[in-house]
Specification:
Number of helices: 17
Strand order of the largest sheet: 2-1-3-4
Structural class: alpha/beta
Distance between the termini: 22 Å
Helix content: 55-70%
Largest sheet: 4 strands, mixed
Length: 416
């Protein structure tokens, strides 16, 4: 057992100290910090930026109400009445004196018509704000032409009252579903990328040692089975270390910037009240999913003698992970469909799909428990089978990029 822990901590510490791990962790932390502070970063660069638009009002009636309308919605958009010709205004835009020119006129029915010209129309926010402001003015003018009062117009555009109520006992409300959806969405990405990254790392680690003939030295002193599980646990600790740092940084900045993150994504996907049971399930399914795929990756990595063959050997495993993730993304909007329910009990899909269902639905306790039991049994069976393949696989050299080599590896293990 002492040798087992020596390999475990050697795998963990050797990877932890590598430049690639430190650099990728720092880069990822910076990316997470940037994403969680995105609104502050955008505000920092845009706080002194004002778009000045020259307005040629051919009606002599639209400029004032439009300016009033835009003042209420966008304080970084400045309108200036321009009395020159359209061509001279375009010239000033080219000389960067103005950011754009707006020509206002009326159609045959007396309703607003506009043309907006700028050096580039790639940034649609300014044009959209102006268009929305003109739409409000047009609506009021059209309403006055057919003698509608403001009260009648308000009733016409008032949203229909539509309440969604779940009759199932203890079912989540719409607000709770939105909050759960946001958390599940984020954690699904964490599970997906972590399993993909660290399972590949295990396969590469085994193949690297085997290709360098280090494996021949190791198996003379430590059994291959101990090696496999020591490497799985060592890289598992490495993944938890990296994920803990990323989640801590992300959670800290989200909590700090929660008030400035209102609107858009954060109104739909809330992070204010995270149920502790959801976090517990996320940890359980992540750990079990990791061990399932890590064991699979370890014995697949033991079958190849060259690092170049690793990706080809683990490609089917990658497709399975991607398939589970895509099904989970589909299930975020329809988590209670029979297809999602059935596939959530398939071991290789359970870590993502069962967690998604637990986060989105109010399930009977036996369903997530059954999913955990299925995963545990699958991990045990995969570990037993994987250990036998690994034990023979590490002794196989030469060109090995076929799954027929699994049979050869089992035969070698049986003959020992």
């Amino acid at each position: 057992m002492n040798k087992f822990f020596i390999i475990l901590f050697h795998t963990y510490l050797s990877k932890l100290k590598t430049k690639s791990f430190i650099i990728t962790t720092l880069i990822t932390v910076l990316i997470v910090s940037g994403l969680t502070n995105l609104t502050n970063i955008i505000d920092f660069f845009d706080k002194d930026q004002t778009d000045t638009i020259a307005v040629i009002d051919q009606t002599d009636q639209l400029f004032s109400p439009l300016m009033k309308q835009l003042t209420e919605t966008n304080d970084q958009l400045k309108l200036e009445k321009y009395n020159g010709t359209e061509k001279s205004a375009e010239k000033k835009v080219r000389e960067e004196e103005y950011d754009g020119v707006l020509i206002l006129s009326n159609d045959q029915e007396g309703l607003p018509v506009a043309s907006f010209k700028a050096m580039s129309i790639a940034d649609s926010s300014v044009a959209t704000d102006i268009q929305n402001g003109l739409q409000q003015i047009k609506t009021k003018l059209a309403a006055s032409q057919i003698h509608l009062t403001n009260e009648q117009l308000g009733k016409l555009y008032e949203p229909v009252a539509f309440n969604k109520i779940a009759l199932e006992k203890n079912a989540k409300s719409e607000e709770e579903l939105n909050q759960a959806r946001g958390l599940v969405y984020v954690l699904l990405f964490v599970i997906y990328f972590a399993v993909m990254l660290y399972a590949n790392m295990i396969a590469m680690e085994v193949a690297t040692e085997k290709s360098s003939r280090v494996m021949e030295i190791l198996i003379s002193s430590v059994s291959p089975i101990k090696q496999m599980f020591a490497k799985i646990l060592g890289i598992g600790l490495l993944s938890l270390t990296q994920l803990a740092a990323l989640l801590l940084v992300g959670y800290t900045f989200i909590k700090r910037n929660l008030e400035s993150m209102s609107g858009g994504f954060f109104d739909v996907f809330g992070f204010q009240d995270i149920p502790i049971i959801t976090i517990i399930y996320a940890v359980i399914f992540f750990i079990l999913g990791y061990f399932l795929y890590a064991t699979l990756a370890a014995f697949l990595g033991s079958l190849v003698s060259r690092i170049e063959d690793v990706q080809q050997m683990i490609t089917p495993m990658t497709f399975i992970i991607v398939g589970g993730f895509m099904i989970a993304m589909f299930g975020l909007n329809q988590p209670d469909t029979p297809f999602i329910t059935v596939t959530s009990f398939i071991p290789f899909f359970t870590p993502m799909l069962m967690f998604m269902r637990v986060g989105m639905l109010t399930l009977p306790v036996w369903e997530p428990i059954l999913g955990i039991v299925i995963l545990l049994l699958s991990v045990i069976l995969m570990a037993i089978f994987g250990a036998r393949v690994y034990k023979g696989g590490v002794l196989m050299y030469g060109k090995s990029n076929s799954y027929k080599d699994i049979k050869k590896a089992l035969q070698i293990t049986k003959n020992e």
